[in-house]
Amino acid sequence: MNQSSKLRIYITIVCISFLQGLQFGPSPxxxxxxxxxxxxxxxxxxxxxxxxxxxxxxxxxxxxxxxxKISKKKLLLLSSAVAFVTGILPLFVDSFPFLFAMxxxxxxxxxxxxxxxxxxxxxWFVGDARVVAMGVQSASVGAxxxxxxxxxxxxxxxVFSNSYFINFIAAVCFFLILFCLPETGxxxxxxxxxxxxxxxxxxxxxxxxxxxxxLISYTTNISMHLAGxxxxxxxxxxxxxxxxxxxxxxxGLLLGFVTRVTKxxxxxxxxxxxxxxAALLVAFPGNFAMLCIGSLLCGFSQGAFIPTAMVAVSNAxxxxxxxxxxxxxTCFSCIGQIVSPFFLNxxxxxxxxxxxxxxxxxxxxxGMIISAAIAAYIMMGKPSRADQA
Length: 389
Fold this sequence. Notes:
The chain is built from 15 helices and no strands. By secondary structure, it is an all-alpha fold.
């Protein structure tokens, strides 16, 4: 592949990642949305971030079959269009059920984009180049989240609904993908190169489930966690989420180096990074500097965990099955996102007597430490032949 072709693929990867980043658009204005719809429960407000995962997990798996019928490029163009339409329409309808429904429909884009991002990388890169490309993918997801959340926070500072304008990003992505991604047709099955997965894929997907139960709590709780002079500040919430995303960008660009150092312990180290970050969030809810450090550590977790896990599942299957393996991982991760608000809020009430962001982050500290131990057990063991493609 020449440098010009490689650049176009990287631009496509960045665009797909920005489509994924739109999931977190409402994050900095969740508190304002709750004030505007006071009769809606906190968990449902938080699900504006996690609800797209309900639809997303279905289409992430379905994508594994769709790529044998429809080209990746056409699927990505459709995803971009859906993201734009569902993101802009709530500007014209002041209704929480309608907003929630549009977020659910955005899940179609989220599911396809997440699965296809890995599939595009697997199609165009191999070996160490795949790790580097997945690092770029992770960094660009972080950039997408940073731009989306910071932009939405600024746009929605006075009127929260103005934050919806951030979804024009999807329109830009549509045209960039249209011009940059080559049309390679549908994925062909032949011989051993068939759409099939194995036990190793499900083991890593389970780790993704554990990671996201706790990881997503950062985005769904940070704007409500601020205390003291920071309380109610959309700009502070947006900036902290951007710090989280910048950390993901940094670790994504350094992923090749990080994986060479941590080797099979990369996933465990990523989980422990979040545990450390959540501990700082618990201890310093009103200290912006310490919250920034905590956000960095939480962002490092996502930046290292997701691409490393995606490389692992794509390496475990034949090339044509990369979208299916990625879809299964995405499905498990989405389930983790969906159950997270209810699971953590309910457990917080049971163990601490009330559901608060401080108590939720306490649970995340303990939960991630246990999850890191499970990840170490799974990843340190050598996969059996039956687990490998």
